[in-house]
Every structure is written in structure tokens, then in C-alpha cells.
Design brief:
176 residues; globular; four-stranded parallel beta sheet; UDP N-Acetylglucosamine Acyltransferase, domain 1; 3 helices; alpha/beta
Amino acid sequence: MRNLFLLLATMLRLFRQRTASETERIAYYPDVEHGRDVRLTGDVNFGSEPFLVSLGSRVTIADGVRFITHDGAVRVLRDELPDLHLYGPIKVGDDVFIGVSAIIMPNVSIGNRSIIGAGSVVTRSVPAGEVWAGVPARRIRTIDEYRASAIRESFRWEPGDYGPRWREELVKRFGQ
């Protein structure tokens, strides 16, 4: 009976988490230190030590992002070093975007106004104002270069006005 209760409680928690708004979802991770207006756009894994993760304000984290705060590979050394553990904090600055399925490794800081590309594995700290992507992640460009490119290539539209006219304009511009 206890197992059934735990299963139902877990299912209810996951349902509430899934149906919460993007900015409400962070409340389901009370051990994660965070600033204002943190958006989680899907399932985010803060790992087994979420208290080692710190998020600034106006941070957006896409679906499938993983924060890894420990080095599990030391397990292969347990026969000779049974008490060996490696942990490291992760600090994310203000105005940061982390793309789908990125992995942030221990002892990494991501500076203010930075972007991490989808699928990236961030193994070292990212300076403020840079766009990083790849495996392992590396500097792609500055945030100012990204801004200029985004303005050049963007489809500008009034926020919130995503009705039939918006769809028609996108189809006209990009085809079906």
C-alpha cells in the first residue's frame, strides 16, 4: 500500500510540474538557488545535488537540460579509494539562455548575457556576453554578434499576436 501511495504522489507531483507555467516550475526545485523570472520550458534535471546549482535572474532553460554536479567516474577507483568523491558547483548568471538537451558539468560558471546552444556539453566556464555551442562547448561568437545576426535574419512580429495572420505570414515567407 505504501508503494502505491508513493507512486501516486510521484505521479501527482510530475503532473503538477508539467502543467505549471514556465516560471512556476522552478518552485518544484526548492534546493536550487535562483533569482527572479527563471523559465523552465520543459523537463530539467538538476541532478543529485541541486543545492550546488545557482541560477541568476531572467534565465531560460530549455527542455532536457542536465546539470551534473559530481563526477561519477571516480566509482572505478573505489577499490583503492573508497572515500573518493568529486563535486563542483554550477553558477548561471543573469540573462542566460540554455538550449535543449545541453549538459552543464561541475565547476562551471556561465556569465551574464550568455547563450548555450542546444546539445552542448559545457565543461569549462563561459565568460559573460558570449555564445557557446558544441561538444565540448566552445565560443562561437559574442552576444553582440549574435544580436546583429538575429536582427538581420529575424521575422519581426507583435508579441502575443499569433493568430491566422501570423501563420499566413510565416507560410508566405518560408513555405509549407
